[in-house]
Structure formats: structure tokens, C-alpha cells
Design brief:
By secondary structure, the chain is an all-alpha fold. It has a domain at 184-254. Helix content is 76%, strand content 0%. It is built from 15 helices and no strands. The chain has helices spanning 3-44, 51-62, 67-77, 82-92, 97-107, 112-122, 127-137, 142-152, 157-167, 172-182, 187-197, 202-211, 217-226, 231-240, 245-253. Helix 6 (112-122) runs parallel beside helix 8 (142-152).
Length: 254
């Protein structure tokens, strides 16, 4: 009787192995078919300069569920044409932009900065998704990813900065500093939005002053006060951040 459970277990393991092998063979065949179809599409293109983009686009319009396989095939065959691959994929399925970026980043065909910048230019509406995919791929480069993203598409800066601050609250001050240095003309709105996410955080004032030119201290203090921080606390934080007495006096006169 003790042999029965053992025999059942052995039978299950053999069945599992057989199913896994069958699944693996099926995947291999699918990839081979997709690879052949891709080659055929490439050869049919009249405009060879856009052949890769159009071939990727055509395959993904027909087989969006095969996005990982299609992109891996395209990258393996034409790594130098990663921009065309991104274009073809995003234009076929914009909602899969995050997946496209993730797959391209994992392929290591270009720097993370170049990939982000190009993708942002092609599909700015998915800026947040692009940044999230990039940060998930390389968390240690969060600040640089944010910098590249907001300088590429300044109009999307608010959404990008707000999203990354909310997703990575422990990095809120680092993101603030990067955002202000990248877009100094937006310092007031960046400080205001940051204080909405992290109310009463006087360090926001200190970092903002330290990261911007001296003549912005007055606006930063004023914004902090309007956001609920006392004049005294905002002033002290600005001084801690390096504000000059002349700038503080101007702010206090308002």
C-alpha cells in the first residue's frame, strides 16, 4: 500500500515533464514560424529603409499576444535598428508601450537614456509607463531616468515627477532636486506639487533652494507658505538650503 502514493507521484512527475516538453516544443515551433514570417515581410518591403519597422508593425497587428517573441526575433536580427523596432511595436499596439520598453531594455541594444528619450518622443502620452518600465529595469538610475524623461518631454514633467515621487517616496527629495535642475523655470509648480504629495515637509524648501538659482528663493518661500508651511519654518528651511539674506528679506516683505 505504501507504494501507491510513490507510484502516483512518479506518474505525476512524468506527466508534468511530458507536458513541459510539449509546451517547450510548441513555443520553439511558434518562434520559428514567426521568424520565417518576419523574414518574408522584410523581403516584401519596397522601402528598405523602413522595412524593419513595417515588418514588426505588421506582425504585431496580427499577433499582439506574441509581442515578446516578435521583438526578440527583430532585435536578434537587426539590433542596430532598435528605433525602428520600437516605432513598429508602439504604433501597432500603443497600450503595450510599457512591455515594448521592458523587452528592448532587456536586450541591451542601446543605453537606457537613448531608449527612454526615443520612446518618449515617439509616444509622449505613455511617458509615465515608459519611465516606470525603465525604473523597474534599472532602479539605481531613477534620478537620471527622470531627468532624461522630463527634458525630452517637458510638457509631461508634472505627471512623470508626481508618479515617480508617489511610487518611490523614499526618493522624493532626490527626484525634486533632479526635476528643478532639469527644468528651473518650473521650480514653483514642482515645489507646489511636491508639497501636495509630502505636506509640511520643510526639507522640500531646503532642497528646492539649494537646487535652484538664488533669485528663486523668494518664490519658493512664498509657494511653501501658500501650501501651508509657516513663514518662519519656510524661511528657516530656505536659509538651511543656502538662501541669501537679501532673498529672504524680499520674501518676507510680501
Amino acid at each position: 500500500m505504501k507504494l501507491l502514493p510513490l507510484l502516483c507521484l512518479i506518474g505525476f512527475l512524468f506527466s508534468f515533464a511530458a507536458n513541459s516538453t510539449a509546451y517547450s516544443l510548441k513555443q520553439t515551433r511558434q518562434i520559428a514560424v514567426l521568424s520565417t514570417m518576419f523574414d518574408q515581410l522584410i523581403h516584401r518591403q519596397i522601402n528598405s529603409e523602413m522595412a524593419v519597422e513595417r515588418s514588426v508593425n505588421a506582425l504585431l497587428r496580427s499577433y499582439p499576444e506574441q509581442i515578446a517573441s516578435v521583438l526578440k526575433i527583430a532585435v536578434a536580427k537587426y539590433p542596430q535598428e532598435y528605433e525602428q523596432i520600437i516605432c513598429g511595436a508602439i504604433r501597432a499596439e500603443p497600450a503595450l508601450t510599457s512591455d515594448v520598453i521592458d523587452i528592448i531594455l532587456r536586450s541591451n541594444v542601446a543605453s537606457i537614456e537613448d531608449i527612454i528619450s526615443f520612446a518618449m518622443t515617439e509616444e509622449p502620452a505613455y511617458a509615465v509607463e515608459i519611465v516606470n518600465a525603465a525604473v523597474s529595469h534599472k532602479p539605481s538610475k531613477l534620478e537620471n531616468i527622470v531627468r532624461v524623461a522630463i527634458t525630452t518631454e517637458p510638457i509631461m514633467a508634472k505627471h512623470i515627477v508626481d508618479s515617480t515621487m508617489q511610487s518611490y517616496p523614499e526618493k522624493i527629495l532626490d527626484i525634486l532636486a533632479v526635476a528643478i535642475k532639469a527644468l528651473p523655470e518650473q521650480v514653483v509648480s514642482i515645489v507646489r506639487d511636491t508639497l501636495r504629495i509630502s505636506p509640511d515637509n520643510t526639507e522640500v524648501v531646503s532642497i528646492a533652494v539649494n537646487s535652484s538659482s538664488g533669485n528663486k528663493a523668494r518664490e519658493i518661500i512664498s509657494t511653501a507658505v501658500k501650501s501651508g508651511i509657516s513663514q518662519e519654518s519656510a524661511t528657516a528651511a530656505a536659509i538651511a538650503g543656502g538662501a541669501l539674506e537679501a532673498d529672504i528679506a524680499k520674501a518676507n516683505e510680501e
